[in-house]
Amino acid sequence: MFVQQFVLKVTRISMQTSENKQSEQVICKCPHCGASVKMYWHRLSPGLAKALIKFRLRVLALKRNKIHISTEVNFTKIEYANFQKLRYFGLVAKYKNPESKEHESGYWLLTKRGNLFCKNQLLVPMKVQTFRNKISDKSEETILLRTILKDTDLPIWDERDDFNYEFADIHEMEEIKFDINGQGMLFNQ
């Protein structure tokens, strides 16, 4: 297979902040496609835990593990918008039609891990890091569902300032290789 190789560029720009302080921001972009190389940390919040419980209750009520989240679950807007983050923890998955092998839009299923977690029989990482929609790291700290729901110090949902990210370490990721379709192969795979 034909592979093109590109090296990530790191650019530093000087910015004036709203407090009139001079700051330096690192902007990492792929020179091939311009995509960001930010790696985001996602926390398993009480809001996500409650959305998982609501989803599991629908699975049990409908007696099937193929649920359309916008039409069959009464999610709030914030639950609906954040539901997909549960897959980073292996608690839910997109439904894939066994015959066509294609994902069916809007349909999700509860995984075995998700069911065990809902029954407080499984510890999951408190946080996971994603890079381009794939898990790149996880915290060593693990947590049970009941702990998340009982901890009153945890914010129900992450606020805008709570979103943590890092830039992919370009020293460890010296090159991003692209296949003939322009899809990046990361971490020297």
Secondary structure blueprint with pairings:
Blueprint: E1 4-6, E2 9-16, E3 22-29, E4 38-43, H1 46-62, E5 67-68, H2 77-82, E6 92-96, E7 103-110, H3 112-118, E8 124-125, E9 127-131, E10 134-138, E11 142-143, H4 145-150, E12 164-167, E13 176-178, E14 184-185
Antiparallel strand pairs: 1-13, 2-3, 4-9, 4-12, 5-7, 6-7, 8-11, 9-10, 13-14
Task: Tell me what the structure shows.
Helix content is 19%, strand content 33%. The strands form five sheets. A four-stranded antiparallel sheet has the order 10-9-4-12, with no helix packed on it. The radius of gyration is 20 Å and the shape is globular. It folds into two domains: 4-37 and 168-185, no CATH class; 44-126 and 139-159. The protein has helices at residues 46-62, 77-82, 112-118, 145-150, and strands at residues 4-6, 9-16, 22-29, 38-43, 67-68, 92-96, 103-110, 124-125, 127-131, 134-138, 142-143, 164-167, 176-178, 184-185. The protein contains four helices and 14 strands. Mean pLDDT is 76; it is low at 1-18, 170-178 and 180-189. With 189 residues, it is of the alpha+beta class.
* Portion in strands: 25-35%
Overall number of domains = 2
Radius of gyration: 20 Å
| Backbone structural class | alpha+beta
End-to-end separation: 14 Å
N to C succession of SSEs: EEEEHEHEEHEEEEHEEE
Shape: globular
Describe this protein with a few key phrases.
three-stranded antiparallel sheet; disordered N terminus; alpha+beta; disordered C terminus; 2 domains; four-stranded antiparallel sheet; 189 residues
Summarize the structure.
The chain has helices spanning 46-62, 77-82, 112-118, 145-150, and strands spanning 4-6, 9-16, 22-29, 38-43, 67-68, 92-96, 103-110, 124-125, 127-131, 134-138, 142-143, 164-167, 176-178, 184-185.
